[in-house]
Amino acid sequence: MLLAIESSCDESAIAVFDPQSGIIGEWVHSQIALHKEYGGVVPDLASREHLERFGPMLEKIADTVDLTLIKQICVTVGPGLAGCLAMGIATARALSLVLDVPVVGVNHLRGHVFSPFISLHKSDPDSFSESIESVSPHLGLLVSGGNTLLFSLDDQRRISILAQTVDDAAGEALDKGAKLLGMPYPGGPLMEKRASTGNSKAIKFPTGIAERGDWRFSFSGLKTSLRYRIEKLTDEALEAEMPDICASYQEAVVRQLVRKTSQALKEGQFRSLGLSGGVANNTALRQAMENLAKKFGVPLFAADRKHTGDNAAMIAFAAWINQDGLQQNRSASPNFEPSLKLV
User: Is the CB of residue 272 less than 8 Å from the CB of residue 135?
Assistant: First the structure.
């Protein structure tokens, strides 16, 4: 069994993974309430919270899992906030000494890349290798607060980045847009809630780079367009238009993501489509990607909602699914410097 630790930002998370049966336990402590009054994550507070939470969490886990069965410790080594990563890495080092097992560093983005396949493994662990090979090459869309990229997976589970954002990430655009509209942190989910009662066709917001064959994403112009529109409205008019503004703004984000993914599907020979990252929890995006997969006649592997945000289950799974590729990061004392990029 593998025990994984995730602390890249404001979630203290631990999970235990058994290759024979899947995720057998996961524990997450969210810091949203702590950072809400500051309008965003405060790194020093987040690091302190990780320090205070991991000890009690491990004690709780020891009551339900036989830690002597753990054969490897996995820990996020980047990208993320340096102080937060350090807390997780220190915890992993200490635990590896106590249990006398090796510790391996895992890239946080690799966790997101493979998270859509957690349910595939759970459905039939014994045939997982054959199952994932049958849907390769795979086109994945990773959408989070800090990253927006298209990537491919071949039948050897090697990752190739095909396109990424040239400025803001999609999640960043949603959160910043919500902030411009006066919504508290975290704004993305609140915008989605307001959008549910609005008309997504009411306002035409820009949808980034439009050149044919250019798969890159861009969301900075969308945010600027929203600011200009807000400046022209009175407070009363803004409140009246809020549902339509939120729906149209969200639609512009989703439309660009789907359009670029569609271009990649047209030009590549992909046998499956994937969706992961924090923004993958957005209902409108999930539905749009389901429709896109049906259009091209390929299966969609979308990460379970509980595995779209920062979680340790995806870290454990990524460590197991791609052990050969992680050998170069194996160390008794991993740090957060070598793993700041996906590939």
Answer: yes
Residue with tokens 């080594």: 77
Q: Is 278 annotated as a binding residue?
A: no
> How far apart are the C-alpha atoms of 252 and 9, rounded to whole Å?
27
Structural domains of the chain in order of their starting residue, each with its CATH number: 2-121+310-329 (3.30.420.40), 136-298 (3.30.420.40)
Does residue 29 have a known ligand-binding role? no
Q: What predicted TM-score, i.e. pTM, was given to this entire model?
A: 0.90
Tabulate helix, strand, coil % of the chain (nearest 5).
50, 15, 30
Consult the annotation and say whether 175 binds a ligand. yes
Q: Which segments within 218-271 are labelled E, that is strand?
A: none
Least confident of 37-46, 126-135, 152-161, 239-248: 37-46
**192 labeled part of a ligand binding site:** yes
Q: Which one-letter DSSP state was computed for residue 332?
A: S
pLDDT tens, residue by residue, 129-152? 999 999 999 999 999 988 999 999
What is the C-alpha to C-alpha distance for residues 139 and 150, in angstroms, rounded to an integer? Answer: 7
297: left (phi over 0), alpha (psi -120 to 50) or beta: left
Which residue is listed with tokens 């990029």?
341
Q: Does residue 108 have a known ligand-binding role?
A: yes
Task: Confirm whether residue 145 is marked as ligand binding.
Answer: yes
Cα(342)–Cα(112) distance, integer angstroms = 10
Lowest model confidence (mean pLDDT) among 1-5, 88-92, 204-208, 303-307: 204-208
Tell me whether residue 146 is annotated as binding: yes
pLDDT for position 342: 59
